[in-house]
Every structure is written in C-alpha cells, then in structure tokens.
C-alpha cells in the first residue's frame, strides 16, 4: 500500500463541515488525480485551478484535465507539496452567466429523436423545447479533439447509450448519453442517442482556438427550421483513421 | 522549386513524422503524440545538427526508403538496421552525406521496432497545434508516409555537425517496466496486483503507438464496472475488462474509464517503443518516497 492509503485500500480524506474534501491520488512521479464527490465540485476545482494558473498562483503544470468527477494534473515538479495544500482550498461554485454562451444551431431531426421522446415520456417537439431551453456547460472534453461532454440536463432526462452503437455517426451529430449531451466533431463510431445535427465546426486545428468548446464553456442549442444539407467532409474526417 | 524536399520510395509498414509532440492540449482531447523513443529521436537530430524539436521519420519494423531532391546530411538511430545510400552501405547511428537525387534506405530492424531518420533542417510539413507529429488516435498532423508522397525539408540551422558515432545496444531479452502503483490500484485484489508483478507477460502483436498491449494472466479485480471518465497519463497501465494491462504510449486517449493500476515513468518508455511482439514483459513495482504525496490528517 502507498502511504496515502489505509490498509483496506480506501482513501483517507478529511470531511469538513460543508462539502467533503477532495481525495488526492498520486499518478506516477509528476501527476495528481483529484477526486471530488460531485460533478459540480470537479467543475469548481477546475475553475479555481484556471484562476490560480492565470494569477501565477499555481506551480508550473503541463496538463490540467477535468473529467466527470476528477481533475488530473500532470507535469508537476513537486506534486507532494500541492497534494498537501490543495484540500484546504476554498472552491467557489462555478459561476453561471459570467460568460456569453456559445450558441450551436441544431436541426432536431436525429434518428433517435423518437426513442428519446419515448424515454422522456414526451412528444418529439417537447424534447426539442426542453433540450434547447437547457443551459449547458462543457464539463470536460475527450473521446476526440473538440468533443465536449456537456452537462445541464436534469437527472430524470438522462438516457442510456444505444444498445447497438453505430459504426458511423455523421459529423455534427448532436447526441445524448447518461448525464451528457455532445456534438461529434468528426464522423466516428458512436453509441449516443442522436437527436439532431449542426453545421457548426466543433474542431478546426487551423482556427484559433481550434476547439469551439473547452471545459467550462457555457452552451445553448438553437433550433433551426430549414432542412440541413448533407454533412460536409472536413479535413479532420479525411484524416480520421 | 526548392530542393529541400524528399519523396517516399518505400513507405514501409508504418512510417510517420514525429517530433516532441503537442503537450498541453489534453483538456481538449488532444493526445501528446510525438516520437515513442524520445532518446533515439533526439540523438538522430543531434547527429545532423538539428534541435531536438525538429521532426524526424519514425519507422515500424520494416524501415523505409526516401529520395532526397537536394543533398543533405542524414542519420538513422533507434532500432538498428542496415542503412544504404543508393544501395551502398553507410553507417547506422552516424551522420551520412546523401547526394542530391540519391535514395537513403533504412532496412528492416535487426532488433527493436522503431528507427528514426533525421535530416539536417528537419522534416517540415505544416505544424498543427505547434507540432508536426502524426497522431494516429485523433488524426492530427500529416498522414503516415505513402509510396510516392512528398515531404518538405527545413533549412539546416546550425554548423555542420561534428563527427559522432553511437554505440549500438544489443537486443533486449525482456522488457522491464518499472511502475508506481495507483491511482486506481485499489480496484484490484492483492492477488491481482501480485499477478501484475509476478505474472509472465509478453508484448502483444496488437500493440501500436496508442498502447503496448500485453498477453498474460488477467489481473483480478476487487470491483466491477467502470469509473466515470478520468484523465489518463502517458505511461498508464490501464486494465480493460479482459484484465490484461495496456501501457499507454504517446497517442493514448486523454481520458478513459478503465482503472489504471500503475504508471510507468516516462524515462522507461523508450524501451517499450523498441519491444517487438513476443518480447517477455516484467512489471517491477517502484517504491514511492514516503510522504511524496501525503493526505491531510
């Protein structure tokens, strides 16, 4: 066992009066994985890390990777020092409305729209109304460059992945899985429930910034009426292997 | 038209452009990428007077051959292989002069997997997010080399290199991978963790730039299911449901939901880049300095 584990392998974390302290796990020689009790706590820690990095109050770090319940830091010269200090940080909740939302136009005509409507117990039109009324935020990115995991749907609207993943999901597809909404930045295999399509370019390495969505970005989906043309082939897709 | 260019005569099994990769973008889902055998990449650059950041060609098992439009100094390092210029043998691991129009060939690796071809001035396709590396997971950077394709070369930036020769290491009888436990070693039973250090593993033929896969006894899990997605480090020993550890190499996904039993420090990964399928693998647990990462209370 490492010194930071109890003999039965569970992590020791001090629990304060309010929110539980984060659990800090070592990752190799230069990394820390900080695990939090709730997704919103992970977002709050990520926001605090970015604030401290911007103010020069964070030691040099190569990567700051937020995910569902964790933030991973890599490339730290002295991870031990930060591991001791970090659980004592005050984490203000992620601020809502301090940045303009990225608006993503969507044609809500996806092949799984009816299935999602059935899972939600509402009409297809009501799926569109609820989804486009939701204030989303990019919790984290992954899977492919430019793919953001967007949170914001209440728990009773979470849906499972498709039982049979598609071998090819078209670029720009808007899908739901678990607590997340996402937009496929390029054509790829995928198991999310597809409710629509967008022509927004999620990822363009020749653009600055390359990613339309980064962790923390607020997002709204805007319904479009006109039929969408066939998806364009992007440079990303051509080079996808 | 510039004569700073090469054309691909024989692309080989898989030859890609590599440099030091694109760190700092993992939060956008962009893998680090870059040369799998970092020391060999740096050495090849040094032999031709390039900075370490210059791009080289990384071959896989079968080497490659390129024709240089203009004369250039080149060097081949990494996996030892026969090197020729227009069919005449020249030294491996040393700067060689390649005349205009001549073909430089790195033959099949005599042992090891990946050879590195450096050219004075560096291989020069347009950088993407600050790097020319081919990333096979996300498709960033130039395509893998194809027969007949062309690539620009940069201009030599330094004085001609001093003569230098590199000792050639013999084949490794086994791949030793030291690792630090965690962050998710608690997802495995004590027996499962013993399997990792005591079991007889081999490099699987399904290995690639994304990960070195292993064949051997599966690690027993203490918990079922998957983790919520979390950040994945270079060198992670990720254990998918089949129980066989996968060592994450430079094109690894930046997040994942399978538990990571341990992490191999970066300085040991060059050996993994040169371990051919079938090579025995031994995982050696490193001690963590006491208090290196301490919890409050």
Supply the key terms.
heterodimer, A: 241 residues, alpha+beta, four-stranded antiparallel beta sheet, four-stranded mixed beta sheet, 5 helices, 13 strands, elongated, disordered C terminus, B: 297 residues, mainly beta, seven-stranded mixed β-barrel, six-stranded antiparallel beta sheet
- Which word captures the global form of chain A? elongated
- Pair of chains with the largest interface and how many residues each contributes: A-B, 61 and 47 residues
Total E-strand runs of chain B: 20
User: What is the gyration radius of chain B calculated from CA atoms?
Assistant: 20 Å
Question: What structural class do helix, strand and pairing data of chain B support?
Answer: mainly beta
Number of H- or I-type helical stretches of chain B: 3
Regarding quaternary structure, how should these chains be classified?
heterodimer
Q: Unreliable stretches of chain B, pLDDT < 50, 5 or more residues?
A: none
| Mean pLDDT rating of chain A | 86
End-to-end gap of chain B: 68 Å
Shape of chain B: elongated
């Amino acid at each position: 066992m490492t010194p930071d584990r109890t003999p039965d392998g569970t992590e020791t974390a001090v629990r304060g009066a309010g929110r539980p302290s984060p659990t800090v796990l070592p990752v190799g020689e230069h990394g820390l994985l900080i695990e939090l009790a709730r997704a919103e706590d992970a977002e709050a820690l990520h926001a605090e890390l970015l604030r401290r990095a911007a103010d020069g109050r964070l030691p040099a770090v190569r990567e700051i990777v937020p995910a569902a319940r964790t933030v991973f830091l890599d490339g730290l010269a002295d991870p031990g020092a930060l591991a001791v200090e970090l659980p004592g940080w005050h984490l203000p909740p992620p601020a809502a409305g301090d940045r303009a939302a990225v608006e993503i136009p969507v044609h809500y005509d996806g092949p799984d729209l009816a299935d999602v409507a059935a899972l939600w117990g509402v009409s297809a039109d009501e799926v569109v109304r609820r989804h486009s009324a939701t204030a989303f935020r990019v919790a984290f990115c992954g899977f492919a460059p430019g793919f953001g995991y967007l949170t914001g749907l209440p728990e009773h609207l979470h849906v499972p992945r498709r039982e049979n993943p598609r071998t090819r999901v078209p670029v720009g597809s808007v899908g739901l899985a678990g607590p997340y909404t996402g937009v496929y930045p390029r054509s790829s295999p995928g198991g999310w429930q597809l409710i629509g399509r967008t022509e927004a370019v999620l990822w363009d390495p020749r653009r600055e910034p390359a990613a339309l969505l980064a962790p923390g970005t607020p997002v709204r989906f805007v319904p479009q009426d006109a039929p969408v043309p066939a998806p364009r082939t992007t440079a990303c897709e051509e080079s996808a292997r | 038209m510039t004569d700073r260019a090469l054309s691909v005569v024989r692309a080989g099994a898989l030859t890609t452009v590599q440099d030091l990769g694109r760190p700092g973008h993992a939060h956008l889902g962009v893998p680090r990428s870059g040369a799998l055998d970092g020391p060999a990449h740096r050495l090849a650059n040094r032999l031709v007077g390039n900075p370490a950041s210059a791009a080289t060609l990384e071959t896989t098992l079968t080497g490659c051959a390129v024709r240089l439009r203009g004369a250039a100094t080149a060097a081949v390092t990494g996996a030892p292989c026969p090197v020729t210029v227009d069919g005449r043998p020249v030294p491996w691991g040393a700067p060689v002069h390649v005349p205009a129009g001549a073909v430089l060939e790195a033959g099949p690796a005599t042992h090891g997997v990946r050879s590195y071809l450096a050219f004075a001035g560096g291989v020069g396709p347009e950088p993407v997010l600050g790097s020319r590396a081919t990333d096979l997971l996300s498709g960033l950077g130039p395509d893998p080399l194809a027969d007949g394709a062309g690539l620009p070369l940069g201009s030599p930036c330094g004085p001609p290199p001093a003569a230098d020769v590199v000792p050639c290491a013999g084949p490794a009888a086994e791949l030793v991978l030291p690792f630090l436990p965690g962050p998710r070693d608690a997802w495995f039973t004590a027996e499962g963790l013993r399997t990792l250090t005591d079991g007889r593993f081999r490099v699987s033929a399904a290995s690639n730039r994304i990960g070195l896969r292993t064949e051997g006894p599966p690690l027993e899990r203490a918990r079922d299911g998957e983790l919520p997605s979390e950040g994945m480090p270079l060198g992670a020993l990720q254990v998918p449901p089949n129980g066989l550890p996968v060592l994450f190499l430079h094109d690894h996904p930046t997040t994942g939901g399978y538990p990571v039993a341990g992490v191999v420090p970066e300085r040991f990964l060059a050996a993994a880049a040169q371990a051919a399928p079938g090579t025995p693998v031994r995982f050696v647990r490193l001690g963590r300095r006491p208090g290196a990462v301490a919890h409050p209370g």
